[in-house]
UniProtKB/TrEMBL annotation:
<dbReference type="InterPro" id="IPR017871">
    <property type="entry name" value="ABC_transporter-like_CS"/>
</dbReference>
<dbReference type="GO" id="GO:0055085">
    <property type="term" value="P:transmembrane transport"/>
</dbReference>
<keyword id="KW-0472">Membrane</keyword>
<keyword id="KW-1003">Cell membrane</keyword>
<dbReference type="InterPro" id="IPR012700">
    <property type="entry name" value="PhnK"/>
</dbReference>
<keyword id="KW-0813">Transport</keyword>
<dbReference type="GO" id="GO:0005524">
    <property type="term" value="F:ATP binding"/>
</dbReference>
<feature type="domain" description="ABC transporter">
    <location>
        <begin position="12"/>
        <end position="262"/>
    </location>
</feature>
<keyword id="KW-0067">ATP-binding</keyword>
<keyword id="KW-0547">Nucleotide-binding</keyword>
<protein>
    <submittedName>
        <fullName>Peptide ABC transporter ATP-binding protein</fullName>
    </submittedName>
</protein>
<comment type="similarity">
    <text>Belongs to the ABC transporter superfamily.</text>
</comment>
<dbReference type="InterPro" id="IPR027417">
    <property type="entry name" value="P-loop_NTPase"/>
</dbReference>
<dbReference type="InterPro" id="IPR003439">
    <property type="entry name" value="ABC_transporter-like_ATP-bd"/>
</dbReference>
<dbReference type="InterPro" id="IPR013563">
    <property type="entry name" value="Oligopep_ABC_C"/>
</dbReference>
<dbReference type="InterPro" id="IPR050319">
    <property type="entry name" value="ABC_transp_ATP-bind"/>
</dbReference>
<dbReference type="Pfam" id="PF08352">
    <property type="entry name" value="oligo_HPY"/>
</dbReference>
Length: 285
């Protein structure tokens, strides 16, 4: 009789994460007020799976991304990657662990240092891990550029010589160079022309299928997440108010906010409606 298959371990576990931001004191002797921007967030990502988080500006999505990337520490709760509590690690150990999780930022025009050549930008994560072999760095940078549809000859160019879509491909190459298990992509196509958005999303889907990397995709657009992810989480005012497959959530939304959000969202390549009913004046952050 064959031995039972051991249970598969999760890649990322976000366990009861809440977060508060301190505000300036209203007076010299007054206590510092705070605002709670995340409320008991829980979800997991399995190896090879991609999860999308959708919500309007102020829902707390980018704050959650910073906590998952260990750029900030949650007020309460835990973030575990491959079973390791990221916020309990010593700094040196966390620096090495970052090889397993990388980030692609929203704005390809500000996330790439305009003073550096592309090879230095793409190899930044490797150099942060202590890699100093110049020939090896150049080789790996060329390999990553070709993987995202650019050419090795682009290594000596500067960011201003590329279009927005090409810059985001460079940012993806930088995230891939450590061969991470997880890439957190915070609004990766929102700054791009609609004609380029699908190209970048198709690249991410191809990388997921060929490299096996998982994505946590953060967006205000349901159509973007539908393109890439198996699971969709809807955030509103710092809470997850609905979850399910993108098709389930889009076709049969249950929460009133989800219904308003979907009604307000255009498809990729279409213009946004003038009235966005899911937006609120009291967004958190």
């Amino acid at each position: 009789m064959s031995a039972p298959t051991p249970p598969r371990a999760t890649l990322l576990d976000v366990q009861h994460v809440s977060h508060r931001y301190r505000l300036p004191r209203p007076g010299l002797l007054a206590p510092r007020p705070s605002v709670k921007v995340l409320h008991d967030i829980c979800f997991s990502i399995w190896p090879g799976q991609s999860v999308g988080i959708v919500g309007e500006s102020g829902a707390g999505k980018s704050t959650l991304a910073r906590l998952i990337m260990a750029l900030e520490t949650p007020t309460s709760g835990r973030v575990r990657l491959l079973g390791r509590d990221l916020h309990a690690m010593p700094a040196a150990q966390l620096r090495l662990a970052r090889a397993d999780f990388q980030m692609v930022f929203q704005d390809p025009y500000s996330s790439l240092d305009p003073r550096q050549r592309i090879w230095r930008i793409v190899t930044e994560p490797l150099r942060a891990l202590g890699q100093r072999d110049h020939a090896l760095l150049q080789h790996k940078a060329a390999e990553m550029l070709e993987r995202v549809g650019l050419q090795a000859r682009d290594l000596q160019r500067y960011p201003h010589e590329f279009s927005g879509g090409q810059r985001q491909r460079i940012a993806i190459a930088r995230a891939l160079i450590t061969r991470p298990r997880l890439i957190v992509a915070d609004e990766p196509v929102s700054a791009l022309d609609v004609t380029i958005q699908t190209q970048v999303l198709d690249l991410m889907l191809e990388l997921k299928q060929t490299v096996g990397v998982s994505f946590l995709l953060i967006s205000h657009d349901v159509a973007v997440i539908h393109h890439l992810c198996e699971e969709l989480l809807v955030m509103h005012r710092g809470r997850i108010v609905e979850r399910g497959s993108p098709a389930q959530v889009v076709q049969a939304p249950r929460h009133p906010y989800t219904k308003a959000l979907i009604a307000a969202m255009p498809r990729i390549g279409q213009g946004r409606r003038h009235a966005t009913t899911a937006e609120h004046d009291d967004d958190l952050i």
